[in-house]
Fold these 2 entries.
Entry 1:
Amino acid sequence: MTTHAVRLNAVTKTYGRGTEQVHALRGVTVALPRGGFTAVMGPSGSGKSTFLHCAAGLDTPTSGTVHLGDTELSRLDETRLTELRRAKAGFVFQAFNLVPALDVTGNVTLPLRLAGLRPDRDWLREVVARVGLEDRTGHRPAQLSGGQQQRVALARALVTRPEVVFADEPTGALDTCTAAEVLGLLRQAVDAMGQTVVMVTHDPVAAAYADRVLFLAGGALVDEAWSAGADAIGRRMADLGGYGHRPGTARRTAVPGRRESAVAGGVASGAGAAGC
Ligand SMILES: Nc1ncnc2c1ncn2[C@@H]1O[C@H](COP(=O)(O)OP(=O)(O)OP(=O)(O)O)[C@@H](O)[C@H]1O
């Protein structure tokens, strides 16, 4: 069995034709080990979402190959691809994407029911407790705060024990402290549960929660950083033309010493350490 959760080999993605043609990805090769937390950064239009969508089997590369675990995605027809995504990928989006008519339990167990599987009650209880929602299971999304809704989305992503959780700007709609809580939970999913997480973000502070940051520019993978702090990530982004960087002011999301929040493990501990 491969030790990589995701592998992209020479992946290109071209949209449109002729003068309208856009090269969203230009020969991206990268392997993401199991149990790692990877952030994907780059200026607007650099190909971050396209990268995430191709890696997750939501979009098909123009050329090159993508493996999710041991399975090469281009070999699958649409039905098998949908089944594979349900089994092997969890998703967390900026806009939460919960079903308004379902309560917390209904939303969290939805991927299992769509796959025709019965929820394992102990695992469901554990996942809901890990995101701190054990006393909210009967609430509907409209009765929850944004941060709580994103925690439901995270539990929904984790409940199938996926190969990878793909997160696209998961803190983009959250305030600083709530964002820190959600990032602490993603970190905890990696450290305590061995989950693999791939997260697209514009925020250097959010990216600093990851073990590894991939930098895209013009559809190409141009750099990477390991265990980097927010200021170093912000400076690299500024070099790539992402945005201007003033040291210490790029912080939008509160960052508790990220290792402490991860090992302390609770929602409250992460927020507390950040002074939220
Ligand atoms: N469906 C599509 N049709 C045509 N062009 C597209 C499509 N999707 C993306 N693109 C183009 O591909 C390039 C990469 O887009 P992508 O959304 O991956 O970038 P991004 O880095 O996620 O951007 P942002 O940070 O602004 O969300 C952009 O030039 C975009 O306009």
Entry 2:
Amino acid sequence: MPFAKGHGTGNDFVIVPDTEGRLSLKPEDVALLCDRRRGIGGDGLLRVVPAESGSEAEWFMDYHNADGSIAEMCGNGLRVFVRYLLDTGLADGDVIPVDTRAGLKTAVLDGENIRVDMGPAEFGEASSASLDHYTWAGQSVSMGNPHLVCQLSESDDLQHLDLHYQPVFDAEVFPEGVNVEFVTGHYPHVAMRVHERGVGETLSCGTGVAAVAAVALNRHDADAKEGHVTVDVPGGRLEVDITPETVFLSGPAVVVAEGTTTLA
Ligand SMILES: N[C@@H](CCC[C@H](N)C(=O)O)C(=O)O
């Protein structure tokens, strides 16, 4: 089976081209391919499959978390997916539509970066997350997938959080699990770390960055409908533009290897 490997700000993915839509990957196949010791290694897997007929997009991003579970959306995954389509000639031009479980998304080339229209950030109820005997208030945000954005206080040290553990969250608010972001700083420049559902701590999370940026703007000015936020993640920096209609995420995305595997 052919594969490629890519990442966006250190959020890394195994890419599996399945251009005729014939492969069926079981959750255990995905977990093995994403295993960093026994497999290729990645925070998730992107299967490249044809979009349904009638779609504006030619390709569907079949995204899986490293544990084999499925998620609705992946912002960095989408940027890497588009980079792969362009590198391999599966897509061309400056504007590339892609189908996802969270609907049609559009990516554009932005110099060296890939910029994606993530759709609007939808705020839900206030909730909280606990870790190591501390509890932080959080804002739930949907970017197609669920997020809980927790602002740390000035005295909290982002670097010292132990994200080897899943933060405790309210399962009544998040019955399908949640990605939890911890944030320091204020609009227009914040830093975050994330514990991703189905993965663990990752170096970056595009949907999480978009959620964090929307919360930062809202905390700055609850009436503001647009703004630009710079978000630092352990794997680099992403830029977010918020408009009244949508959220744009921009940053680097690269394919670093190609090969074949007999794992699945
Ligand atoms: N890394 C991703 C998010 C991947 C999905 C997430 N783990 C979930 O289960 O919702 C991103 O870049 O957005």
